[in-house]
Specification:
The protein contains 8 helices and 14 strands. The protein is of the alpha/beta class and 284 residues long. Helix 7 runs parallel beside helix 8.
Length: 284
C-alpha cells in the first residue's frame, strides 16, 4: 500500500494541538509532533483525498482566526518508505526514571528504571508531548503499589502501562477510538501487563466496577469538564484525580467545574502553554 504523508508547520504548542485535534475530528487517527511540525499518514486512496480537502477548509478557518499554522503539505510515500519515515519520529525517550522504548529499538535498562515498550501505531501517545510527560511524572510521584486505576482516553495505553509497571493492582482503560483501542491492546500484550490492564472501546460510562484509587485523564479541557461528574462517581473519597491536556487559557474553566464537583487542586504543573493538575475530593 502507498501512503500520503501530511505535514503542517505550527508556530507554537497551541497551534499544533489545535491542528492535531482538528485532524482527529476529520478522521485522521494519529499524528506526531516533530520540531514545530504536526505529521500524520493516510492510505493513498480516494477517501483520503476527500479527508484532506475537508481538513484544508477547516485549517483555512483556523488561520483566518489567527492560529499560527502554515499550509498543509502532502507527500506520497511507498510502503517501506512510510515505515522508515514513521519510525524516525519516535525514538527512546527518558523522563526521569521512566523510559519509553519503541519496539524496534534496543535498550539496556539502568537499575530502578521503569521501561515501557511502545508502538503507538495510528493512536495518540508516544510520551513526547508535554501533556503526556507531565501526566507520566505525576503518576510516578503519586501512584502506590496495589492501587486501582481508571485511565480515560487511553490512546496508546502509555499511562496504563506505566501504572502497571509501578505496581497498580488493576487498570481499566477506555477510549472512544477503535484504532486507539487496537493499539492499546497490542501495547498491553507487548509489555506483559494483560493481567493488570484491560481496555475497552467507549467512555467512562463503560466502567461499572468498584471505586478506584486514581483516575487519569490526559484529554482536552472541554471533555474533562464534561466528564468530571462521572470521574467523581468512580473515585474513592480519598482518591487522586490526575488531569492533563489543558491549555493554560482554559485552566480556570476546568478549576471552576472541578470546584463545583467537590474537587480541590493540591498540585499544578506547567510546561509551555500546557497545564496538568492533581486533585482530590474536598474535605467536608
Amino acid at each position: 500500500m502507498d501512503w500520503l504523508e501530511l505535514v503542517l508547520n505550527a508556530k507554537n504548542d497551541v497551534a499544533a494541538e489545535r491542528a492535531a485535534l482538528l485532524m482527529r475530528d476529520c478522521g485522521i487517527k494519529g499524528c506526531w509532533f516533530n520540531e514545530g511540525a504536526v505529521i500524520s499518514y493516510l492510505p493513498e486512496e480516494t477517501a483520503s483525498w476527500q479527508t484532506i480537502d475537508a481538513l484544508s477548509v477547516e485549517l483555512a478557518e483556523l488561520r483566518a482566526a489567527g492560529i499560527g499554522l502554515g499550509e498543509l503539505r502532502v507527500h506520497g510515500r511507498r510502503e517501506l518508505e512510510w515505515a522508515d519515515n514513521w519510525k524516525k519520529y519516535f525514538k527512546i525517550n527518558k523522563i526521569g526514571r521512566i523510559v519509553i522504548r519503541p519496539s524496534w529499538e534496543d535498550y539496556t535498562p539502568e537499575p530502578g528504571e521503569a521501561v515501557m515498550d511502545l508502538d503507538p501505531g495510528m493512536a495518540f501517545g508516544t510520551g513526547a508531548h508535554p501533556t503526556t510527560v507531565m501526566c507520566l511524572q505525576m503518576i510516578d510521584h503519586y501512584l502506590k503499589a496495589g492501587w486501582t486505576v481508571l485511565d480515560i482516553g487511553t490512546g496508546s495505553a502509555i499511562l496504563s502501562i506505566l501504572s502497571a509497571r509501578l505496581g497498580a493492582a488493576s487498570v481499566f482503560a477506555c477510549d472512544i477510538d477503535s484504532v486507539a483501542v487496537e493499539a492499546a491492546q497490542q501495547n498491553i500484550i507487548a509489555n506483559s501487563v494483560s493481567g493488570q490492564v484491560s481496555v475497552v472501546q467507549g467512555g467512562v460510562d463503560k466502567y461499572d466496577g468498584p471505586l478506584v484509587d486514581m483516575i487519569l485523564a490526559n484529554i482536552t479541557a472541554d471533555v474533562i469538564k464534561l466528564l468530571l461528574p462521572d470521574m467523581k462517581r468512580c473515585l474513592k473519597p480519598d482518591g487522586y484525580l490526575l488531569l492533563s491536556g489543558i491549555i493554560d487559557t482554559l485552566r480556570q474553566d476546568v478549576l471552576t467545574v472541578a470546584d463545583k464537583n467537590g474537587f480541590q487542586v493540591f498540585e499544578e504543573r506547567k510546561q509551555g502553554e500546557w497545564i496538568a493538575l492533581a486533585l482530590r475530593r474536598r474535605e467536608t
